[in-house]
Specification:
Elements lengths: L1 H20 L7 E2 L2 E2 L7 E3 L2 E5 H7 L3 E5 L2 E6 L2 E6 L4 E4 L2 E4 L5 E3 L2 E4 L1
Antiparallel strand pairs: 1-2, 3-4, 4-11, 5-6, 6-7, 7-8, 8-9, 10-11
Amino acid sequence: MKKSFSILIVTVFLALALPLSAFAGIVVVIDGTPLSTQDEPVFQGGRLMVPMRVIFEKLGAKVEWDNGNITASKGNTLVQLKVDSINGKLNNRPHILPVAPAIIDGKQWFH
């Protein structure tokens, strides 16, 4: 009986603890360093969306925005994306993205 009660208590503690952990902030880490941004990643449509510009710039890329077209370049690497489109390009080769980049609260986000 004591063993069953102990298992029940542990189960209740775990059940209560898990939802609390869902509120912990999500941290984006690049090259072992946490990325400091004004905006935390957000969930949209079951996918985690992260702020696009700040990540590309942290990686040393130049980012350009033109009417929903996003271009990030660094050295010989060129990334081309379009808001609300899963069709992207890496060095002018077509790539299908799992989720289209989006505008959330006036900022560019991607999965």
